[in-house]
Amino acid sequence: MRKPVPSFRSLVQADGLVRVVGAHTALGATIAEEAGFDAVWSSSLEVSASRALPDSSLLTMTEYLEAAANMQKAIGVPVVADCDSGYGNNANARHMVHEYEAAGITAISVEDKKFPKMNSFADRGDSLVTTDDFCRKLTTAKNAQTNSDFFVIARTEALINGRPVREALDRARAYADSGADAILIHSKEKTNEEILAFLEGWEAKLPVVVVPTTYPDWSARDMAAAGVSVVIYANQGLRSTISALRGTYASILDNGDTVKLEYDLAPVSDIFAYQELASWQALD
């Protein structure tokens, strides 16, 4: 029997940096938990890519929710759901909170982009909604929750859109005043300089979440020292899977057998273990 899953809020309120990693399947989430991550990011990029589709609001809320719920059912750490721009207007945002809460998800992230959204690293800019409009969406989302532990991360894409750090700070302060539980500040620069400038101007009104995809040399220790509360390694798992599959499939075709691969491949018994096969067989 699985242990009760702690709320994401309880992790953020505890001491130390909360480390989160992206996944898109229950198996991936299980491996992430086994590795020791504190929580799993149900990545809209990964869920979309698993269908060979772009991360541009092509899938429905129901499809993203199913992926997040399947992960949460399989693991004993919280799933943080990447909910893009809230799947539409304020009515959609209210419905979103009801559905994710009902599925046992204790944390979501919503970004200040227009719907439909485009992935941050494919975004050509000029895709932000107004601060006032996003504040109304956040207020709607927070008013919709029924569990006080439910955690709404307000993600600003100001820096992604080429806006100055000053605007990112102004938006973050407004989102904090509208009830957000944390601020995710995102950047596509190759260094962490923009993020450090944001942190220097932030009055620590709320916890700060970062996603160091384009500045991978920033260590967890230094993030914590700079005032970061949560780090999300959002797509490294997907990218490593692509690399591994490319190598495996090419080797099979090139060599005509799998002998060279066998040393590095997980045994079938590992698959059975992740499936908890023995416990299912014991039922018969």
Structural commentary:
- With 284 residues, this protein is an alpha/beta fold.
- The protein is 44% helix and 13% strand.
- Strands 1-2-3-4-5-6-7-8 form an eight-stranded parallel β-barrel, surrounded by seven helices.
- Helix 7 links the parallel strand 5 (151-156) and strand 6 (182-185).
- The protein starts with 7 loop residues before the first helix and ends with a helix.
- The model has no long low-confidence stretch (mean pLDDT 96).
Question: Structural class of the helix and strand makeup?
Answer: alpha/beta
Helix coverage percent: 40-55%
Q: Name the helix and strand elements from N-terminus to C-terminus, one letter apiece.
A: HEHEHHEHEHEHEHEHEHHH
Strand order of the largest sheet: 1-2-3-4-5-6-7-8
Enumerate the spans where pLDDT stays under 50 for 5 or more consecutive residues.
Answer: none
Shape: globular
Termini distance?
18 Å
What's the alpha carbon Rg, rounded to whole Å? 20 Å
Q: Roughly what is the average pLDDT, rounded to an integer? A: 96
